[in-house]
């Protein structure tokens, strides 16, 4: 027969609040860390925005289910896409998570919900006919678990206790990312440098049409839908020593390596640390771009672990040497973090193929109303209307094209466009 809670859920499709709170209490085996944050920014173009929200709740009315959200949005070709994403992306992500989940299941559902939320934000913004775009680095902190989703070249790094620095994002710049260049050209875009009078090519690699240096973003309807909003997602669980997150736009990362940014602010509280990172970036490069930094400290509840001391002064030669080699070092360190017990890597995926990212839905994508539901825009569908995300896809992880999750026709068209199966559906004069 099952427990009373299970019988209630099977009959109503919902879990009573008392049962959910009980689950939360059972799943919290370790006291939650304290989260403190600070923000700093210097504006040149007025296209950077950020989001800080520390009062979110998985179960409304239950403070023990709280989590925090931090994000940086670096707009281009105007600020409309950055503002739209700041205002709507969180709601789109949360609406893609099934109701009635316990904490562990909620965390497991986050990566897929982040993909759905990013794609929905892109689809909804493009429907407004505005041509701006934005990078997004979106961070959810739930206890000791950190989940990061990103498109573009804003970045999130983790400065763990003990001085290990690793990147929790992947830059989607065509200049450095070979896999993304290959994906864009295979999907119908062209990659090349800007041609000037006389035939000379200058500047970074760009995607044409449009001339965007990035391969993933939200917005950019005039560039082509092979510039996709599907985020790289990484989820890690920190040790009980905690750590510091630095989330920043490329105004920081064009001036400082990940290790330089982390070292520049060690020993400072979060608010002063954010200001210090911005100050160091401006000192190194000047105000050539909007420069935004959010620092988040995840602190053990007894605060027994003291912040690392500030770095000693280095001469200029050593600083240049560190900058040159820092990226390789950060990548090597990120591979070693799990081995030395600093973090536990729970999830990592960067594929741009929607069928891979949404996976298989054994519940056949049915909503609590009994209708089928679009996995992206969350609208109810009649059974005859839903199109499996796997149907006709060579990238499918399922041998059953009738298996969910399902997409409405608009979202299926968007999926096909992102994979280069049809011309972009949006043309701008």
From TrEMBL:
Residue stretches making up the PPM-type phosphatase domain: 29-298
Cofactor(s) for this UniProt protein: Mn(2+); Mg(2+)
GO molecular function, one term: metal ion binding
UniProt-listed Enzyme Commission number(s): 3.1.3.16
Entry-linked PROSITE patterns: PPM_2
CDD domains with a match to the protein in the record: PP2Cc
Domain of life (superkingdom): Eukaryota
Gene3D superfamilies reported in the protein's UniProt record: PPM-type phosphatase domain
Reaction catalyzed: O-phospho-L-seryl-[protein] + H2O = L-seryl-[protein] + phosphate; O-phospho-L-threonyl-[protein] + H2O = L-threonyl-[protein] + phosphate
UniProt keyword list: Hydrolase, Magnesium, Manganese, Metal-binding, Protein phosphatase
Family of the protein in this entry: Belongs to the PP2C family.
Protein name: protein-serine/threonine phosphatase
């Amino acid at each position: 027969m099952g427990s009373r809670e299970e019988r209630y859920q099977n009959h109503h499709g919902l879990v009573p609040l008392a049962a959910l709170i009980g689950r939360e209490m059972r799943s919290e085996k370790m006291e939650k860390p304290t989260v403190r944050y600070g923000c700093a920014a210097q504006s040149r173009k007025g296209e950077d925005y950020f989001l800080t929200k520390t009062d979110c709740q998985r179960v409304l009315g239950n403070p023990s289910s709280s989590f925090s959200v931090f994000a940086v949005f670096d707009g281009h070709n105007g600020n409309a896409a950055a503002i739209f994403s700041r205002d709507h992306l969180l709601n789109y992500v949360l609406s893609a998570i099934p109701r009635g989940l316990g904490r562990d299941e909620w965390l497991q559902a986050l990566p897929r919900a982040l993909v759905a939320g990013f794609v929905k934000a892109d689809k909804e913004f493009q429907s407004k006919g505005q041509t701006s775009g934005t990078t997004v680095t979106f961070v959810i902190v739930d206890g000791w678990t950190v989940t990061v989703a990103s498109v573009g070249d804003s970045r999130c790094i983790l400065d763990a206790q003990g001085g290990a620095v690793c990147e929790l994002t992947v830059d989607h710049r065509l200049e450095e990312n070979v896999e993304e260049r290959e994906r864009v050209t295979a999907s119908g875009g062209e990659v090349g440098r800007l041609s000037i009078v006389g035939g000379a090519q200058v500047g970074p690699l760009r995607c044409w049409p449009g001339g965007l240096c990035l391969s993933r973003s939200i917005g950019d309807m005039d560039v082509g839908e092979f510039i996709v909003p599907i985020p790289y997602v990484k989820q890690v669980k920190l040790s009980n020593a905690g750590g510091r997150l630095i989330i920043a736009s490329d105004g920081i990362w064009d001036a400082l390596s990940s290790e330089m940014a982390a070292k520049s602010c060690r020993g400072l509280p979060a608010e002063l640390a954010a200001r210090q990172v911005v100050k160091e970036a401006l000192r190194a490069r000047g105000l050539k771009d909007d420069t935004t930094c959010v620092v988040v400290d995840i602190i053990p509840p007894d605060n027994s672990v003291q912040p690392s001391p500030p770095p000693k002064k280095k001469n200029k030669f050593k600083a240049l040497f560190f900058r040159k080699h820092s990226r390789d070092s950060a990548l090597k360190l990120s591979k070693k973090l799990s081995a030395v017990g600093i973090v536990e890597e729970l999830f990592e995926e960067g594929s741009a193929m929607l069928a891979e990212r949404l996976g298989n839905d054994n519940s056949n994508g049915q909503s609590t109303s009994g209708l089928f539901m679009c996995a992206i825009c969350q609208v109810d569908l009649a059974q005859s209307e839903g199109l499996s995300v796997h149907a006709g896809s060579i990238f499918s992880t399922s041998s059953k094209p009738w298996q969910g999750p399902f997409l409405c026709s608009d979202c299926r068209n968007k999926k096909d466009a992102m994979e280069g199966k049809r011309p972009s559906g949006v043309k701008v004069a």
